[in-house]
Amino acid sequence: MFLSSLRRGRTPFAAPLRALAAPNRTRTLTTSWPRRAALATHPPAQPTVLLSSPSPEYIEQEEIDVDLLPPTEAQIVITDRAAEQLRTISAREANPDAALRIAVESGGCHGYQYKMELAKSRALDDYLFSHPTLRPSNILVDAVSLSLLNGSTIDFATELIGSSFRVLENPHAKGSGCGCGVSWELKT
């Protein structure tokens, strides 16, 4: 049938090609992917849970120069997408205490930079946060860094160049920071 159509000068693709070439026709493409992706970056409906915080005695004993945030004021928002990735990492490591450690260091092109690494356990000066419903989804932030990260939103992004955890919104950062998404300047 295909060969006989070609011999008569017709192709089975001619009708679809004519439809695409029709000048008065418009085609619309709809997808639910962008909508789902946008929803994934929204914070969870319930607030992120603070599971533990450093003790004032430990901070004093170690002579760490920081004013501890009260547990009622300490907040890191974990998106559903980041929580799901943390849960996957925890399952792969077979360790429910596996966590993403986020720290702030001086340096980078704007004065401060985020440092993120996987941790297997909590240090005594860490705040431990978790997503309200997707667990385990642990995020550790040391007491000094939390003073610069409090109120930030943590997300996980997958792009053509790779996948990574990111600080989406930091209320202590001036502007959007560097194009790399790691370096930022402190509001004054």
TrEMBL record:
InterPro entries: ATAP (IPR016092), ATAP_core_dom (IPR000361), HesB-like_dom_sf (IPR035903). Residues 75-180 form the Core domain. Signal peptide: none annotated. It comes from the Eukaryota. One of its GO terms (molecular function) is 4 iron, 4 sulfur cluster binding. Belongs to the HesB/IscA family. PANTHER family: IRON-SULFUR CLUSTER ASSEMBLY 2 HOMOLOG, MITOCHONDRIAL. NCBIfam families: iron-sulfur cluster assembly accessory protein. This is Core domain-containing protein. It comes from Mycena rosella.
